[in-house]
Amino acid sequence: MRKPLLLTFVLLAVIVVLAVANLLIGSVRIPIEEVCRILLGEDTNEIASNIIWKSRLPQALTAMVAGAGLAVSGLQMQTVFRNPLAGPSVLGISNGSALGVAVVVLLSGRIGGVALSRLGYLGETAMSVGAVVGALAVMMLIVWISQKVKGNVTLLIIGVMIGYLANAVIGVLKFLSPEEDVKAFVVWGLGSFSRVSGDEMILFVVLMCVMLPLSCLLVKPMNLLLLGDRYAANLGLNIRRARLSVIVCSGVLVAIVTAYCGPIMFIGLAVPHLARALFRTSDHRLLMHATMLCGAILALVCSLIARIPGFEGALPVNSVTALVGAPVIGVVLFSRRKDDVGE
């Protein structure tokens, strides 16, 4: 156990370093001494204080918990379907969130003349509610279907089809909507860790801090599911109930993150592979916390790159997650392949 424990401490140290870097680096340079004074509550520059408390710190916290949540969701989906390409969006739940936001941004403007997304704080709240409602509606449909079908592959295909159907409806709404509303929806779809601040950030962090420990309660069923349905059933596991519990947990995690940050791609797919490569295990007692830590690290790295000095505002998070994550996972999988050949 010494090596996993050492790796865990290393990952925690990397998270601390990246969190500090997220507070220091940005379009406005703030020295580390001033950041420390701001965090300690001492009198200091009001502009710098606002940047730290209202922008950089909420963005860093949001990135950490969102990355952890998406990574755990991806691990759960890959375990349930025993498919390395499964991710948080595999059952169409992310597409359901996007459809909910499309209704708020596009359909409301078409019907009422003014899109809800243009109404400031009320619009942001409406978009968050729409994302949650859309994701939960699709998840409830998936849960109902899971009671009717037995095979994981069938459920997976149905989930993909639901995603395509949601995208088709979104396409129609885009075609019928004004250009300004379509642009607002596209911007939301790029994903961002900087949307959440103030009370919203506190609620988001609290919700994720509740859901992530609850996810750990599913470690034993997930380990049994890896053995195959027949063997797990012989060991006393209720396959249908275990599968349903994991899907619901994964779906809620995706719904919450998408509602607050938009559809963040790639983290849920890539991070579980990275955690398995680092810890060289399939035991979810180790993988669960390893995946959380690796997800938080990758999200913090992407958040940092998105705010590289020299860019106005921030780069789209989805572009950065793919640019950073794809080469890392490619190296990990290539190294694993070389080890397998060597053995």
Commentary on this structure:
The chain is mostly helical. It has 14 helices and no strands. The protein has helices at residues 2-24, 32-39, 46-81, 93-112, 121-148, 152-176, 179-189, 198-216, 219-225, 229-234, 239-261, 267-279, 284-306, 317-342. Helix 4 (93-112) crosses helix 11, helix 5 (121-148) packs antiparallel against helix 11 (239-261) and helix 12 (267-279) packs across helix 13 (284-306). It is globular.
For the termini, the CA-CA separation is 24 Å
Number of strands: 0
Rg over C-alpha atoms, rounded to the nearest angstrom: 21 Å
Helix content: over 70%
Round the mean pLDDT to the nearest integer and report it.
81
Shape: globular
How is the biggest beta sheet arranged? none
Derived structural class: mainly alpha
Low-confidence runs of at least 5 consecutive residues: none
Number of helices: 14
Report strand %. under 5%
Secondary-structure element series: HHHHHHHHHHHHHH
